Amino acid sequence: MHLARQGHRVVVVDRASFPSDSVSTHYIHQAGLLRLKEWGLLDEIIAAKTPPLRKMHYGYRGIELNGFADPVDGVDAVYCPRRTVLDEILVNAARRAGAEVVENFTVTDVVVSDGRVTGIRGREGDGPERELRATIVVGADGFHSTVAKKVGAELYNVRPAAGFIYYSYYTGLESWGLHHKNGMNEKWFGTWPTNDGLTMVATICTKRYLKEFRQDVETNFQAVIDDVSPEMGEQFRDMGRRAEDFRPMRYPDNYYRRAYGPGWALVGDAGYHKDPYTGWGITDSFLHGELLAERIHQGLAGERPMEEALAEYNKLRDEESAGVYDFTTTLGELTELPPFFKATMSAMSKSQEWTNKMLGLIGGVVPDYEIYAPDALERLYDDAGVPQDERIYDPAA
């Protein structure tokens, strides 16, 4: 969409036919919604009757943060659209911008000439294999990326995956709203309203529970909610009615991949994947997609060498995502919080101002120094009345 809007000739190929569904957290943080607003697409998400969520109930092993980040540029809610809604809006926006979209197209290989990627090879539906040539090929094809595999994009900063997800959609839970709750036994559940009057309910458990969980998904799904919040477990049993099949996801390890090379680049989960615990996949894909498009435009327009522009994209992607990556992989373990996070989150839970600030940090609209800079930490501990001997300032402690 971005490249087509700047006048470049773009062909988009996708294995799916739209509207299509996809395993997803659905959640779009405020930082992602600000991008949609800037692109003129947020109103379409709202027009699809995606419920606005203006309160978050966040709990981690007895620490509760209930509130919402302050509005930014008029974005005063978060939205969790079905992928059948979101993806079609994005694809149609790319079409309107002038991109050619080819659906039901399976990529089988990349075309290489003189050590440089110069296109892709694949087939539309059951048709004959064909080649499409391009100045640059972008793999936005998920963590099983064909493009990444074919170009040999190396992995780095890999951290083992902690858990697995099961989720589905329910009626009868409209009053619940947005919840994100950790229990004491390496279990989590989340709820968020989505389109068509449905509430998505998801569970995450650490991998040691996987074999047992698979033996009776329905019973074990209920048991996770019972374990984390007995009160909500009882309501779920009485009120919730499952509307679709369960969707399982045993996700891969957390990783970065080298995101560029001669004639190619990677974006989204193809180049950078982390635990779905914090729901940052969609938002990061927006931020990094825009960043990559800007650098590709610079290269195509002759403003700078393409290799230099793509190298900067890779560098900025890594720098800008490092904090979320560390936070996500730490909390995604579902174990006891490290002392620093436990001390600061406990202090924040005692103040609505600090609670909202932390939820803004989670949502990508509050910079981390507003909470974790030394002077900010001092104010936080002072406001919460934390004794001097219980204050922790070093995240490595």
Q: Can you lay out the helices and strands and say which pair or pack?
A:
Blueprint: H1 2-5, E1 11-13, H2 30-38, H3 42-47, E2 56-60, E3 63-67, H4 83-97, E4 100-102, E5 105-113, E6 116-124, E7 130-133, E8 137-139, H5 146-151, E9 155-159, E10 163-171, E11 178-182, E12 187-193, E13 199-206, H6 210-215, H7 217-228, H8 230-239, E14 241-242, E15 247-249, E16 254-257, E17 260-261, E18 264-266, E19 272-273, H9 281-300, H10 306-331, H11 339-348, H12 352-362, H13 369-372, H14 374-384
Parallel strand pairs: 1-4, 2-11, 8-18
Antiparallel strand pairs: 2-3, 5-6, 6-7, 9-16, 10-13, 10-14, 10-15, 11-12, 12-13, 16-19, 17-18
Helix pairs in contact: 2-9, 7-8, 9-10
GO molecular function: FAD binding; monooxygenase activity
Protein name: FAD-binding monooxygenase
Domain FAD-binding: 3-327
